[in-house]
Design brief:
This protein is an all-alpha fold. The protein contains ten helices and two strands, in the order ααααααββαααα. Helix 1 crosses helix 2, helix 4 packs parallel to helix 7 and helix 5 packs across helix 6.
Length: 293
């Protein structure tokens, strides 16, 4: 092994502890939700002192931002893996259905992580330290898209009650700002690609393939709608796609998210149509016209 690339013992221990912190944090979230995660609760579950945890994350907000990034990556990986499972011989419309199934499947397996990303308020727990002292601030975790800055603002969805559309900025509660898409990034700078961006890029690519033989470019609404969809496509770094493709990708995103949200909150429990049927109905209405042109 190249000595220049070898980790020191301290670095190995730090990396191992970081992984244990992630696992323990997700265990708390999976059991009781994001609101149950505090630095104190995490420290107790790991038999560590709270000051020791603060050496890795300067505040609960910084920890939640890191976990939010990881959860987005997990969701995105599930979606991209679904395309690989579908194989190269499948039609784009079929691959889109695989992606949607993977999205819903991940949400059902990890309902509290999904709630943390898209609906559950995760404001600081009373008694948790908002920020570490000057000598107790940890460096940003490599690969993290969200970092606590002035006022502990995070670029991940923290405290936001609704799903932010990729590429849009949503204002979160309690003075925290959420940035879910591409464009201007508080932490990563212009053009930084988040996991959510990559998931939307995957959906856009499949929609382009699904509509390549369809002549219509308009989304079918007003010229103003087409203009706004073009603007959204530019923010996504895809000025080449038509308003029709952009609109279809957004419709899939918002409708599937809405149905999954209703399913997770039990709103569909007493309905004769289950979530899978409703999702297929929505996909039929979007994909069939797209294929026919």
């Amino acid at each position: 092994m190249d000595n220049g690339q070898a980790l020191t013992r301290r670095e190995r221990l730090r990396s191992q502890t970081l992984e244990e912190i992630r696992d323990a944090s997700f265990a708390i979230i999976d059991a009781d939700g994001g609101h149950a995660l505090s630095i104190a609760a995490l420290a107790r579950s790991m038999a560590m002192s709270a000051p020791a945890v603060y050496r890795y994350f300067p505040s609960r907000d910084a920890l939640m931002a890191h976990l939010t990034t990881l959860a987005y990556e997990q969701l995105t990986t599930a979606m991209t893996d679904a395309v690989a499972v579908a194989g190269s011989g499948r039609a784009p419309q079929t691959k889109i259905r695989f992606v949607v199934e993977a999205y819903r499947g991940w949400a059902l397996r990890h309902p509290r992580r999904y709630a943390m990303l898209f609906g559950e308020q995760t404001a600081a727990v009373p008694g948790d330290r908002a920020a570490a002292g000057p000598g107790d601030r940890a460096a940003a975790v490599p690969g993290d898209r969200a970092a606590a800055g002035s006022g502990n603002r995070a670029t991940a969805v923290l405290g936001d009650r609704a799903a932010a559309v990729p590429g849009d900025r949503a204002t979160a509660g309690s003075g925290e700002r959420a940035v879910a898409g591409s464009g201007e990034r508080a932490a990563g700078g212009p053009g930084t690609r988040t996991p959510l961006d990559r998931a939307m890029a995957l959906l856009i690519d499949l929609m382009v393939a699904a509509t390549e033989d369809a002549p219509r470019e308009s989304a079918g609404g007003s010229p103003e709608l087409d203009s706004r969809l073009k603007a959204w496509a530019r923010i996504q770094g895809r000025p080449d796609i038509t308003p029709r493709v952009a609109g279809a990708a957004l419709l899939i995103w918002t409708r599937v998210h809405g149905i999954v949200g209703l399913e997770l909150t039990g709103m569909l429990d007493d309905h004769p149509l289950d979530a899978e049927m409703l999702i297929n109905l929505e996909l039929d209405s979007i994909l069939d016209p797209a294929g026919r042109g």
